[in-house]
Amino acid sequence: MQAELIDHIRFTAISPDMIKHMSVAKIIVPDTYNDDGYPIDGGLIDQRLGVIDPGLKCKTCGGRAKVCPGHFGHIELVRPAIHPEFAKTIYLLLQSTCKDCHRILLNEKQVDDLKPTIESFVRADDNEKELSLQTSIESEGKNMSLIKKLKTVKKCPSCGAVQGKLKLERPTFFYMNGNRLKADEIHDWLASISNEDLAYLGIDGTSTRPEWFIMSYLLVPPVNVRPSITLESGERSEDDLTHKLVDIIRTNQRLEQDIDAGAPQIIIDDLWELLQYQVTTYFNNETPGVPVARHRSTRPLKTLAQRLKGKEGRLRYNLSGKRVNFSARTVITPDNYIGMDELGVPLKIAENLTVPLYVTKWNFDYAKSILSNSSYPMVMNHISKEGVRKRVADTNREELLAALKPGDILDRQLMDGDIVLFNRQPTLHRLSILAHIAHILPGNTFRLHLSATIPYNADFDGDEMNMHVPQTLEAQAEARLLMGVSTSIVSPRNGQPVMFAIEDIVVGMYMLTKDGASFTKDEAARLLSSVDIYELPEPLKNGTYSGKDIFSMILPEDLNFEYTDKKDDKNNVVIKKGKLIKGYVNSKIVKKGKLILYLYSEYGPEKAKDFIDSITIMAGRAAYIAGMSISMRDYYISALEKDREKIISNTLNEAKELLDKYRNKTLEALPGYTKKQTYELEVFATLNIARSVASQVLLSHLTMDNNAMLMIAVDARGNILNFVQIAMMLGQQSVRGGRPSRGYDGRVLPYFSRKDKNPMNKGFVKSNFVEGLEFVDYYMHAMGARDSAMGKPLVTAVSGYMMRRLVNAMQDFYIDSDLSVKDAGGALIETLYGGDGIDPVKENMK
Length: 846
Ligand SMILES: [Mg+2]
Ligand SMILES: [Zn+2]
Ligand SMILES: [Zn+2]
Fold this sequence. Notes:
Residues 211-513 form the RNA polymerase N-terminal domain. By secondary structure, the protein is an alpha+beta fold. It has six domains: 24-71 and 221-314, DNA Excision Repair, Uvrb, Chain A, CATH 4.10.860; 83-213, no CATH class; 327-488, Barwin-like endoglucanases (Beta Barrel), CATH 2.40.40.20; 504-584 and 604-626, Enzyme I, Chain A, domain 2 (Orthogonal Bundle); 632-790, Orthogonal Bundle (Topoisomerase I, Chain A, domain 4); 814-843, no CATH class. It contains 29 helices and 27 strands. Helix 21 (594-603) runs antiparallel to helix 22 (605-626). The protein is globular and about 115 Å long. It starts with 15 loop residues before the first helix and ends with a helix. One zinc ion binds at residues 98, 100-101, 103, 156, 158-159, 161. Residues 98, 100-101, 103, 156, 158-159, 161 line the site of one zinc ion.
């Protein structure tokens, strides 16, 4: 084969001559195989179009299935059909040219104005054309607006003909003064537009003639583009494109027969329209305004456009998307008894993934021993120093063992201690992919430490995650050093910890370290031995062990730490010389809090990770010993009833005052708002406050004896607003950021009065979940719930799309050795990464 340098590529519409030139067979039979199971001559899988059957030879090139590239055929349409994707261009052309003389509707002066650019464009040779077309379009900002105005020209400047009213009814129906323009009429019109006139419309007539948009010849793609599948039953199943082409030929045949038989025009026109429909859906089965073509099973056919478009299309799925080897995906489940930096990998997965072992004289004995294994962990492949690759089997193991030498590579199964990358979609930030240490375990799920779910935003309601096994030593080292879980505890975004204790572990920490918490010797021994500590702290005078002392056993002996809460001194914590002497371990110090950050910066990432690991096990155990549950009793607080009524009546009074002010026109409008809008805003704000007032009152009534309150206070689950909604009132519901107002004319429900200003009828809900909801309350609450429920997926879709575009735009940016950011072409994007050269991870540490 001769190598040629590609100078330029040009895209044009395909001409009838090109189709005839390309085609190796005219397809006339709307069928595929004959009764003997051989392709029918002139059928849709004519052997001249190539072969997919390994036993057959291509009748065009003589090649067999894998050698023959496939060849195009064609269908001759007895009546032309409009290419649906060009309908808009055709519409523009018809609008811009005279209905009688088909000249462009520009007057002499306009022609003179535009001539210089157009002439340079028309005269340019092929190489320059691309450029001059670009310039002509760019400089013709005015040109295009001029062209758009051409449809309003009433009289042809060339022949004086009065222009008709042109209409395009999607997708392919054109009307002139209400009369349908047939495809052949449009063809003739477009064919008589000169190349010079086309140039004014930005079309290069020497490469693409507009009449080609009206097709009399249709290309039939090679069979290997639309292979048939043989089912197990021996039955053949054809590709959707083949089905569609069968429909086209069948309609074409009927049309031909009817024309030959001299059928009435109406019948012919109907069939012609059907042919146009078949062609339209062949190109794009999601064309707006056209019924979807379906398979017998009612499944929509996947035709040409559907093959290319969208997430599962050729571009995004097959070209930008890549399948990867050395990866696994399954459901995740929690396991707090492995380290936060570990990943529980099912044995089944470990058996199927391999890591290369580079045989050296130093690991030779180890390599030999693992190669001799005939069950897990064993070697799957042997690649000799010379590059010969052999699958290790029972039959050749001895032979390979004898020949093993340094320089060979062994693909061994994944084992404990291997480094793996773990990922959850959507992959929104750097911490969505972290390196974990594999820990091979029985079962079918990946097991993940509870605290490691936070950066992934994972939970265990069926979430699945992906694992990748880095294959080269360089990749493994990078993963360990740059992507490790421990080193990622502090976020690169703001220098705050992103991994800490959550949920019931936080309750457990309170149970373990609250004032007065004490444990028997047995309990203390179990708590400590669960984290591999086999000595006890000094017992208290009564022989029990203080929870604070037990907790202190996992702290570094020289740790001095103090946390002062500006709002609530109950949260203050003092640790001196590795002993917790004041306060309990709350989420304030281990979450936003400084303790994890302090351990991370002063004792290193590993220590911070070990602390989270230990506290998780120990606090889990402490919560287990203490026991913890909530019930209706926690939420039914009779003392609240009076407060609740007072809050509601106060709120309603305030709303009433606002209404009075609005009615007697003493309410002043906020800048940029009408009085009515101001009233609505202020009423909404006033009614909204009721809930916050209620939460203050609620807080004053509650102590840590209330388990529901305890969960909230230690920041394990829920917030005070949840409690208010359960025990006091749901409060003002919001729809689109305001009070519900739509539904019926001037009212939300039909039996409210239009003049009704009662806050209850505009979403103020007095009742709570314990006492139950009245109908109107329930309805208002459902409106608010629906509003927020609909918002969520919408927001994710929008941000997901934004992410895709950002990734596409920035994927080849990199930070150079001088800390500047460059793109793949070496162009400078940013002189200093981040603009300030500050690493937030290190910045927050003192
Ligand atoms: Mg989930
Ligand atoms: Zn061939
Ligand atoms: Zn004219």
